[in-house]
What does this fold into?
Amino acid sequence: MAEYQYIGKSIPRTHETDKVTGRAIYIDDLKLPGMLYGKILYSSYAHARIKRIDTTRAKKLPGVRAVLTGFDIPDVRVGFIKDQTVLKRDVVRQFRDEVAAVAATSPEIAREALDLIEVEYEELPGLFDPFEAMQEGAPLVHELDARGRPLRTNILPLPWKFSAGDIEEGRRQSAYTVKDRVATTWVNQCCMGTSGCVADFDANNNLILYNQTNVIFGAKQRITDYFSKIGLKGKKIRVKNVVVGGSFGTKLDTDIYEFICLQLALKTKKPVKILFTREEEFKALPPRQPAIFNIEQGCDKEGRLTFRHAEAVLDNGAYTSWGVTTPSVMMTPMSSLYRVPNVFFKAVCVYTNNIYCQAMRGYGTPQATFAVETSMDRLAEEAGFDPAEFRMINRNKAGDITPMKLKITSCGLQECIEAVKEKLQWDEKKGQQKDRGVGMASLIHVAGGARVYKSDGHGIRIKVDEDGSVDVISGGTDQGQGSFTVLAQIIAESMGFTPDDVSFTIGDTSLGLWDAGTHASRHTFVAGNACILAAEKVRRQILEMSAELMPRIIQFGLKRRSRKDKDFQTPDLDLSLLSDPENLDIKKRMVYLKSDPDNPHYQVDVTQVLRQGLHVGTGESKTVMAEVFYDPPTQMLDREFKGNYSMTYAFGTTGAEVEVDRGTGQVKILKLVAAHDVGQSINPTLIKGQIYGAAYTGVGYALTEEIKVQKGKVMNPNFRDYQILTARDRIPVEAVLVEKGDEDGPYGAKGIGEPGLVPTAPAIANAIYDAIGVRINELPITPERVLDAIKAKEGDEAC
Amino acid sequence: MIDYEYLKPASLDEVFDLMKKHGSKAELVAGGTDVMVFIKQGNHSPEVLISLRGLTDLCYIQKNSAYHIGALATHRMLEQSQLVKEELTALQQGSSQVGSIQVRNMGTLGGNICNAAPSADTAAPLLVLDAVAVLQSPEGQRRVPIEEFFIGPSETVKKNDEVLVEIEIPSEMGRFKTAYCKHARRQAMTLPIIGVSVGILLEKDVIADARIALTVAAPTPIRVRQAEDFLKGKPFEEGVLKEAGEIASSPECCMPRDSLRCEGWYREEMVRILIPRVAMAAVEE
It folds into this structure.
């Protein structure tokens, strides 16, 4: 392996000092002169007709600058399939429906004004169960589609169906089959920073939107589209990030509150901020999509998978955001986690009067992997294999082309399974212990970009100033993951500079080149490759300048030195060697001669070259800069949802050792091993941080987290009743990095943003089974569910 | 809009004057870890907040002929007191599991009791320890056994002109082995699904006296006398303790309800399971 200066080194993050000392400007801190505060009035019913809205009293409250309802703004449809309006004026279809909005001189006044808005509703019956909503003759959540055509069903018109091979043939080849039903529920992304934005128009209605999106150009496009429908076509739009306190999927879509903020700012001609309270974050922010799966798998006598057949029903809620597209990503584990020749997967999304959903870390794969990996465990048992051995038999390998036509170019799944086995002492512990158990689950995820848009590109601009400082402008964003430390390492390594030389300007549509978004675990891979290409360009420019200038700089230096120091022996140098850029390279900001790298006389500080190149005194001065737009050579998924839509794929295995208290049903995690094929770690501390954080979220998904929705209403909109685990719960996570390198990754790196979360819940569920012999098919695995299952089993055994 | 006048008197007499002056418009606040949350949620909207934080002389833990704990002693003080840990173990365990360190630095024992949540972490230990609430008004003091103090969720016998000044625990209770179990979904910043406290007075291997108290098992924290009576005179052994758990979890003794946080059947089951465990833990301590 090549000897790197900065790759694989745990370089500390620098921006974080501002965060921990309170200097960083989050949306909460951002104040513009004259800024007003917006608040939103939500529906009081899950489903109702609005009969009357009276804003008279609210408008009279001192300090109130605007009160808007759906009658005050253009009734324009927005959203992923344009199935909602910004403010609802006829019918509300969920408790979070935005009915009115206020802008006032303080958030308290705005809040008080909401109480003065009178809305009269006529309650309508609600649909809260997706299976009921699917029934023929069920009342319709939406009567018309986006184009005004009548709808006949609550099932969304989305073609989520994947088929490869022949399921019936697979069944015939099976010696063993298992069939299960598993269910996952709503969970909130729980960002530390709540949602919010500041909309600021100039006198000509050109907009700067300060927000937290991780897809700045997507946001710009959605606002452009909205502007074109509300009479602001052609107005300039600049989307600019503040410091973001976590995203985890929440900042992928442009949310309704952002459109409301635009309208309040337009109406008042003042900057307006909307900032969610934690309660709003739970009630009015779309969470992870719940899904119920029926899954059937089979294998032959040798334990080789013969088929996988799965059908999913997803409660879509009343409207549609990115949550509805999660089945397209579920197809990856459904079709390609382990070698399985015959696959069928179908998902339907159903409108109900529940809350609607969006993206969350893992994007559908945690749900699908829970189904696949708990089923794998059952099938292993049915066929008489150790679950680890069963997974080894069916593991993916480099060189595979999966039924989805994913090209597996590098694969560390075997090493991940082996690492988990070793760290958990699997062979000694499996099936041995009373009330203690071990379990594992694996994952596959995109790790080399994800061509979900026609471009999966990322643009990088670099300039190198005469003092050797490197400014990089990226269209990407940082939602807390620290990728700009990683990218600085990549640029420093490629340029021969140091990471300290590199500064990033990010998250601004006016400065950055286009980027598909800091999503899909793609940033290190795609932006990293763009950085290498751009760094290579500027390095080349510096070397060409050096070839031209170095002989003179060195000669001049030698002369000066011999003048000052009478004893100085001028060395015998062949300066002609320096005039070919091919002979030169840069390391730690020194340009040196490759054939004699340790000779100090053949070295020049890069700033001398940069200065001399710039300050020439004629019309031939040069500066160093480069622009690169890198779009990985991948494919869009075709109509059958097949195609190699990522350059490479991440694999990983999580192993859990648990102890179950048979009296209370409580599950204690004794050890969690998260082994991940990361290709090559750029920054081990940061990559482990990603894995730990994701694993904790996965443990919450497995054991404690659940948005309780009763008849459409969120019942636990706070951290007291929505139980994320705390530091006191001390989940011992050990991250194992499998580094075999990936030929297409930047220095061999693969994406790791999401994977850590994905296999956590099924690994824990499988460990619980090993401990007590009962399977919990529903998340979260609460003490009640465990105790219930233990009692049911004891009852069965007693009979 | 949230708006109130904040007053911080320096003496009890001043507190009484202010309470008289502002009447029902005023609310007392000690650590504020409950009151401020209620105000923020819009459940309480006092016009005047009378802070007791100026009454620094109510911030003590003492032992003479009895244990005396000032109403303004914080949970953190109780948690860190060696005396409380060794002699009033259950109370130390209860206090040390309230919220987080930040919350325990602010929240007080008096506040926890006067808030009268069915889930209060110090309530079951105080019931087990036969604590007495000392209430003071301009007319004088009265002493109420903690068992009679709670009359409903958020309701106590404390009158509007009274201030809880002290919790007193009889010195003989120091001879009991006590423990508290907060059964919760996570280890910090949470409320118990069920709280169980047990006190055992052992003479040789026989249970000479016993106390069992539960939280979240009824509208108020409760003692379970039937189970206590059953234990008295019995040998300290697992079978006996399990029987006490059966008695305590029966409908005559507790009536846990279904709530968003937990279903009643599970709470009832936990009373049954945890009583013998907590009794064992108390004695093993």
